[in-house]
Model the fold of this input.
Amino acid sequence: MERFLAKTGRSEDDVQTTRILIVDDDHAGRTFLRAILQNYGYSCEVAENGQQALLKLASSLSHLVITDQHMPVMNGLQFLEELIRRPELGSPSVILITAYESMALKARALELGARAVIIKPLPIDELLAAITTALPRQSRPDS
Done:
C-alpha cells in the first residue's frame, strides 16, 4: 500500500475516507473488486444493479461509483442517465467497466459523464490509475 500511496500522492487517511460503490450483477466480480480495493484501504459498498445503486446513493454518500455496463434491471449507461436526472444524489465520479470493447459504448459513457471506461478483465493498475484520476484533489473528502 505504501507504494500505491507514494505513486498516487494520496495519504492513507485520504484513501480510507474515500467511499466507493461497486455495482455489478456478478457476485464473484463484486467480491473480487471489493477485496482488491479494500486491500488498498478504500471503503467499499456494493450493489447488484443500477437501480439498487441509486437507492444506496440516496441513503449514503459515495465519492466514486464503479459500475458494470451489462446488468439486469438497470445497466451502466441507464445508471449514468439517471444520475444526470437526479442531482439530489450528488455527483459521484463514475467509472464504467465492461467486457465488450465498443467505441460507441465508450463515447456514450464519456458523454454521460463517466470518467473512464475500462475493459474486463480489469487491469488493476489501470483501474487504480482511473480511480486516482476520477478523484481529483479538490473533490477529495478532506479538502
